[in-house]
Amino acid sequence: MARPVRILQLVPEPLPTFRADVATLFGKYLPRHGVQCHLVGKGSAAPADNQGFASSRRARAGARWKSELSFLWLCLRALLGANGRTHDAVQVRDMVSIGLLALLVARMKGLPMMYWLSYLMSEGRIERAQGELARLPARRILRRLRARLVLAKGCAERWLLYRVLLPRADHVFVQSEAMARLVARHGVPAGRISAVPMGVDMEAVAPAGSVPKARSWPGWEGRAVVAYLGTLDRARCLERVLDALVLVRRELPSASLLLIGSSPQQADVPQLLDAARVRGLAEAVQVTGWLPPAQAWEYLQGAQAAISYVPRGALYDVSSPTKLLEYLALGMPCVGNDIPDQEAVLAASGAGWLAASTPQAMADALLAILRDPQAARERAAAGPAYIEAARSYRVLGEAVAQRYRNLVGGDHAGRIA
Q: Where does residue 289 rank: exposed (0-12), middle (13-18), buried (19+ CB within 10 A)?
């Protein structure tokens, strides 16, 4: 039997992490295949929890500048302490400056260095800064200056990422096939890129084959309810879903939208509810706030349809949304708009409805479900088997573990039974 692969992984989020592609993939499934993750992340007020990792270290929580310095110092100590006796590879997730530091130290110590690109952080900074500069009046000098600094940081990081870091990394993991093609266009050989899309922990969603019970939102019994599960931040442009609901209600006046989630930015949810009121949807839209997964799935099952709308554009066209996968895993009749990953999943599964990214197209797809809920449920019944076979973390974990063993080589390279 091959001995374990030991990875030192530096991540930008607070620990314990709630990202499934870290906690579930690296903390639960990869250890089953002999891949151990020693995690380093930022601090938080939450109780410490190893979450299945071989070890986890986090920086001190506190004032932002103090916590950032603490995190930088922790990363530096972890990198300097790594060697061939304690680790087989170093991996950095979504951090350009830390990635460059890790690349330097890994080269000095003769360790492979991988980079995990789950989101186009640099492009995101550039887009947000440009949007803020376009909105801010000229008199807001300090805020415009801050936006220009963020813009400069984004541009510098983008150049360093594609010109320096990714071409020199031993391997690059990305979120989707579309992101793999983007990275390849920047000169990284395709053989050094692996796409690892988001998945679903089927053991949590449907333990022993069971399905979460359905729960209606209080007072909405008997309504035609459309559910949306996930973040409600302004960048998601959920006003388009509101516009689709307006069109649906022309045929089904009781149709309502349950938004299961919230936003990290405090102002985003009130702005979204204001947009609903402007459209005459004040009584037809509710926000649950963040909920534990099991409770969120119960409200999802209590709806008649679910929607996964992701804005088209450079940032999200290369993404791999989880919400559509969870809808399919639960056997929910669902609509997904035409970003590449959702288009591929819906085509392969045959269990959902693909719509163009317009309110009218999404409304038409939702009405196809709501007009005949029984037929929609029968079509959606193919979803769980597809997710189990193609996008469960059980399957993804096995494939990623084999990739790590091949990359590290030596006596790690054999397949673990």
A: exposed
